[in-house]
């Protein structure tokens, strides 16, 4: 995908599998997912990609989110991201920046390996609030500490929105996690928004009051998600997220009065 002068490629790392009924809810509507058999089948089986994106802009080679890494716990299986990078001619040593939309385990899998950063020459960047939440706060975990401690010498935390690289800007979007950040690519009158986990299922763009159990602050997450979706409907901005089917870019359109994600 090209947005003006910026090149963006999805990096598949693997897959996650969940039961929609355990993850997705709508207040007062049990099993709301049943209205969307096209996305969840009749048994609620929900399979989605995990991974990240390669962004090339000017001299910078950026990896946004790093999948689950080499693992298989029956629900999540990963390990393909470095091979995907190689297929685009990029070695880990070439990467100048690693950005995290947030620090859930399925986005930090390739942060480090065997206690060393996977991307030795990169600056790793994440919002300061997520770093605190996952390293010192209530979401502190053994897995997070193991994967993130080795990157500390290459880490730059941010607290305000800024242009992180030419044509790539951060937009602080808390709710899913305290430091969740969306990345806006804008070049030559084209825009794409890389959503992180602001949206998990594209169905959430049609169902404004769905929540997922992973949203730390469901009200804030819902506000952010619906603001971005309404905005994208007006502007025609492209949207994409790691957990979207096939990691496909698409647009928000209104079809027969219903807001809808339509993949390109
Ligand atoms: Zn998440
Ligand atoms: Zn995720």
Q: What is the gist of this entry?
A:
This protein has six helices and 20 strands.
Structure description:
This protein has 264 residues and is α+β, with helices and mostly antiparallel strands. It has one domain: Metallo-beta-lactamase, Chain A (4-Layer Sandwich). It is 18% helix and 36% strand. Strands 1, 2, 4, 5, 6, 7, 8, 11 and 12 form a nine-stranded mixed beta sheet that branches. A five-stranded mixed beta sheet has the order 13-14-15-16-18, with no helix packed on it. The mean pLDDT is 96.
Find the CATH superfamily.
Answer: Ribonuclease Z/Hydroxyacylglutathione hydrolase-like
Integer average pLDDT: 96
CATH topology: Metallo-beta-lactamase, Chain A
Please summarize the sheet with the most strands.
9 strands, mixed
Bound small molecules, deduplicated = zinc ion
Q: Helical percent range?
A: 10-25%
Strand content: 35-45%
Number of strands: 20
